[in-house]
Amino acid sequence: MPKILRISTVPSSLNILLKGQLKFLNRYFEITAVSGSGIDLKEVQKREDVNIHVIEMQRQISPFKDLVSLIKLYTYFRKVKPELIHSITPKAGLLSMLAGKLAGVPVRIHTFTGLVFPYKTGIMQKLLIIMDRILCYCATDIFPEGKGVMNDLIKFNITDKPLKIIANGNVNGIDLDFFDPDVISYSEKQTLKTALSIKEDDFVFLFVGRLVRDKGINELVRAFNQLNSEVDNIKLLLVGPFEEELDPILTETKRSIEENSNIISVGFQKDVRPYFAISDIFVFPSYREGFPNVVLQSLAMNVPAIVTDISGSNEIINKHINGMIVDVKNELQLLEAMCEIYKNPAFLEKLIKNSRISVQKFGNKLVWEEIKELYMKKLNNY
Known about the structure:
six-stranded parallel sheet, 16 helices, 2 domains, Rossmann fold, Glyco_trans_4-like_N, alpha/beta, Glycosyltransferase_grp1, Glyco_trans_1, 12 strands, Glycosyltransferase involved in cell wall bisynthesis, single chain
């Protein structure tokens, strides 16, 4: 069978973003997952039943370490002679596409799951643009995860190669059998509510993701606090880890989370479905995304969403159909949307009815089949 390498900078990207996909593809190709070391890579090996290979790569720009990673990738490609390599995440994309071209790998695919440079300025933006242009030059095929990502690649003249979105967008699609509201029983929901001190008549706003500045946590907490000053039977449920090093939230935001008894922070949770199941509305005020899995998960669990007008989110949410859209960093609009959802049960019920049905076109099996056909076509053509 043809040898195919799936490559990411850190193993959590393979573990979380490509769940189930590698196992499916391994029926037709010899798949090896390549990334830095970590327990996530072992989990990928066990769950997906694929080979793994460790090559450490830095997420941040690190010239010496990046050169070492490039040499290791080149050496590995020359040794195993894969017919196709497919990368996700920025640094893995740059290094593997360059190493793949130098090593003579016939098919070199990169999927852009999000872009950083549109949100940077000055020298850093120029440097990131140059890096992505090198990546695209070295790749044989470029696949943006959604329309917003594709438009930015065109707008900033990153590549003149044809750009195609796989299926209807998203790197892996949504597992509609797993993210199904019916799998969480009433007793499970009641037990979790009791454990979190959520009363039966409480209205629950939910956020799932890293608790960092770029996810809009500062605006979300301030908007919630303002609404909470007017009404008491509301809760803000935060599911995800704090990141103090890369993109920390404001000190006063963290203090509010710790001191407000109506804000419940539960940290990272491996299974987020029970938290969706006890929530009324999902709030995702992120500054930038590629094509956010978590919004798909929310809708699949029949929980409408308030999102910001950014790539991916605005491709999933239809305003006033399955959620609401507000401007990035606009705390007032966010507060108004939260108020409208809270005070208008009939409107919320309409959104709920449209939520799960709106993500049927993003089913993961559709994405997997299209990737399989793409690989076969590319391998037959080289």
